[in-house]
Each structure stands twice: as C-alpha cells, then as structure tokens.
Amino acid sequence: MSNIPAELKYVASHEWVRVEADGTLTIGITDHAQGALGDLVFVEVPKVGRKLAANEACAVVESVKAASDVYAPVAGEVSAINEALASTPELLNSDPYQAGWMWKLKPANPADVAALLDAAGYAKVLETA
Amino acid sequence: MTLKHTALHAEHLRLGARLVDFAGWDMPIQYQSQLDEHHAVRSAAGMFDVAHMSALDLQGARCREFLRHLLANDVGKLKLPGKALYSCMLRDDGGILDDLIAYYISDEAFRLVVNAGTTDKDIAWISAQAAAYGVTVRYRSDLGILAVQGPQARTAVARHLPAALAEAALQLIAFQAAWSGDVFVGRTGYTGEDGFELILPHAELVSLWGSLLADGVKPCGLGARDTLRLEAGMNLYGQDMDESRHPLESGLGWTVAWTPDDRDFIGRRAIEPLRGNSPQTLVGLVLEGRGVIRAHMPVRFANGAVGETTSGGFAPTMKQSIAMARVASDYSGACEVEIRGQWVAARLVKPPFVRHGKVLV
Asked: Higher-confidence residue: A56 or B1?
C-alpha cells in the first residue's frame, strides 16, 4: 500500500498539494505515482515566475521506463522550484512528500484548493484505478 | 490470450516482481529497483529468467552446409565444438527474420537460440528451408534458459555445477559452450559483462536459481536487461531491426560473412549491392543536453541529413541518456535529437558505450 498523508490535498492525476502557512502551495507527485513510474532519472520543473493554468502540463518526470507529464493542480504563478532534483531525481522515489517536492505555486485563487481531493478521496481513486 | 509462464513464474511472484506481457509471456520487468539490478550486473552478479527464448536443435548429416545457406554469418568459421556465432537470419529480400546464436555441437548437430517473439515464425521458416537438406528441427520446450551476468557470475554458477562441468565451464573462452547431458553452459550474454547463459531442464533451472539467490546473485528483470544491452551497444530485435530492415542499415554489417564469395546464403543477392553504400546506417548517440532520449525521436544533422532513434534511454552506468539511431549515411556536422518539441545536442559515438563496467565513449 502506498503512503497517503492525511494533511495533504490530491489530484486524481497523482499530484499532491501542501498549503503552507503563507498561503503558497507546495506540489509534488504521490508515493503511488513514484512507485508506478519506477526509478526516476530526470525531472523538468516549470521556471520560477511562469503562470500556470489549472491542469496545465507543466513538468515532466522521466523514469528508466518512460516520460510522464505532471499537471498544475490549480492556477497560479510558480514561486520556487526544487533545484536539487536536477542532480538527484531519485529524491522523488526516496522521499516524495518532503525532499522530493517539485515546485511552489502562488495560487491565483486560494479557494481553488478546497475543490481538490482529500486523502480519503485520493485513496478511493487508487482503489478504483 | 492467456500469457505463458516460465518455470520460475511462481518465484517471480514470491519475490514481488512487477510482471509484463513480453511476446506473450508473463515476465518480470523489475523486482525492486531497476537501477539497483543494473548496477549489480556491472559490479557483481545478476540473473535473468530468459526461458521465454527458445533453443532449437538441428540435426542431420548436412547440418553445417544447411546453416551456411540459412545464416548471413558463416558457421564454417566454427571449428571448435561448443563455439558459438552471432548471426542474422535473412529473408530473400535481405530483411532480418531474427538474430540468433548458433552453437556448433558436432558436424551433424547445431543448436540455435532464438528470440521469444519470433520462435513460431523461425521454426516454420527454418523447417521449410531444412527439408531439402534432410535436416530436422527440434524445439526444446523441455529446456529453459537462465542468464547469469556480471564480473562474479561465472564463479557463482560454477559452485553449483557438477565438478567436471564446472571445470570445463570455467575454462571456456568467450562465445564457447560446454555441456553435460542436458545441462549446457555458454560463455555468452546480452549485458556487456562476463557471464554464462545456461540452457537446462526446467526443474534444474529452478533449483540453480534458488542456489544462486541464496548466494546473493541478484534477480534482474527485463528492464535492467534492456538498459544493460543498450549500454553494451547490442541490438534488440523488433526495435533496432526487424523484417523491413537489412543488416547493413542495422549496425550488423560486421555479422555478414561475405567471404567465401560463392557462399550463397539467403538474402545475399539482395544486400550485396548495398555493401559499402547502404543509404542508411545505425549510429550511437550520447545526449549532451538535458533529458532522456526514447525510441522513435527525430534526429537531424547540420548538413540536413535526418534519421530516427530506434532505442533510447537513460544509461545508469553513464548517468546520462544514450540511444541508437538509424540515420542517412551521408550525415555530417552537429547532431541534434528532438525531445518533446525541443532540439537537444547529441554526440555521435561508436557503440558499445559500456563494456566490463567501464564507460568507453
């Protein structure tokens, strides 16, 4: 069974979202996603300052097997990226919810986050997949 | 369609392997980390269930003569019993039906090891050609194949063979086999490392796997097998070549034996005019920019020559992306690969990329 922390929000396309104290969102891919992809060898994240639409394909994770798009959970502007992933993409495998975060987003509309899945909702997505 | 199982299928499930349909067989793509499996073969020893591949035993007084007609490489080169030869088997028009290894057993007996996805087609083709030579073809479905690869592979295997066979196996030179009854050990492989490929009865294969596992030989899936063979610059049938491609545009010109001039192997008349002037050729690429090359990505050169990658991926030993690409033979100048809409610089190299744990390019 994959790890689905209760305090995070989720998207059915396997991204997680953490609402930080200052209202920015930290985004990554779930434990289930990293397990399904296998060993990750290359990660491309959006540039700081880029404005993203909700559900826009804005990042790419490549495993030994294949490339997969990662989508913006909500609209907003990229405020920071995890520079460590360029040289150590395996952080997405070893620590998907902490050291393996991908980018931070200043949401266009903070209320959008409420519409995302909670842990139970995401667990249901995995069960029915 | 029900997937076929090798004798190790239950063992793969027990070890928690992720299984995929490979040419109609339910095979392990990886057990835990594909990267760890890859590195184990480069640094120590790993083992692969390749029992989906097939051994075909050919028998008949004219067996050697037959194979000199059937195969693009020349089994006439094989003088020492047990010596092996890598060859393409061509259609009349030069298209590659399969790539295989032929072992010389005796003047009246050879063993071929062929790919899983091509086995049925191969048996039909070989049997049809063999009739005129009085050669019989026996599909050894009673035998399985286990590849044990890596710098420690041969000593690991030898510990579990009967003493006389172990001694013979350890004295083998590359591309040579020894056997005792139905246990057959060849010093061959598909990884660029030293090692053995064993062909043996299923029950003995399962038993040997168990012994090697207990000794710490790492089970490896088809995923690691693919990254290892790509680093070793070895072609994958169905990907780097198939029936629509001939050896000279598939990096396999070196396996075509043109001498003696009068050896009339199947496909010779079609490809001989292309000798030295094939319009396309297969090259190796190392990505200089960021990203991962995959199969079927466009390739271009400064002089306008173009092509397409046939295999590509991340090379774990090199920690960068490499590929094989079929390109116009008149290419020159800087090379780029189009990765998801962006042209990224690549360097042309002559495979292999990695051999015996060392990066060569």
From this structure: A56
- Chain A residues in contact with B35 (beta carbon < 8 A): 39, 41, 64
What is the pLDDT of chain B when averaged over all its residues? 97
Tell me whether residue B197 is annotated as binding. yes
Contact B54, B144 (CB under 8 A): no
* Residues ≥6 apart with Cβ < 8 Å to A35: A2
Q: In terms of CA atoms, which chain A residue is nearest residue B322?
A: A64
Phi, psi of B105 (to 5 degrees): -95, -50
Q: Which residue of A has its CA nearest to B38?
A: A64
Categorize the per-residue pLDDT at A128 as very low, low, confident or very high, splitting at 50, 70 and 90.
confident
Q: pTM for this structure?
A: 0.95
Summarize pLDDT for B173-185 with one digit per residue, the tens. 999 999 999 999 9
* Domains, chain A, ordered by start: 9-108 (2.40.50.100)
Distances (CA, A) of A88 to A36, B2, B34, B191: 19, 40, 16, 26
In total, the C-beta contacts within 8 angstroms joining chain A to chain B are: 37
Q: In whole angstroms, what is the distance from residue B161 CA to residue B165 CA?
A: 6
Q: Does A64 touch chain B (CB under 8 A)?
A: yes
Q: Which of B58, B259, B179, B351 is nearest to B361 (CA)?
A: B351
Structural domains in chain B, CATH included, are: 1-277 (3.30.1360.120), 279-359 (2.40.30.110)
Task: Reply yes or no on whether the pLDDT at B1 is more than 80.
Answer: no
pLDDT above 90: residue B289 = no
Torsion of CA A70, A76, A80, A83, to 10 degrees: 20
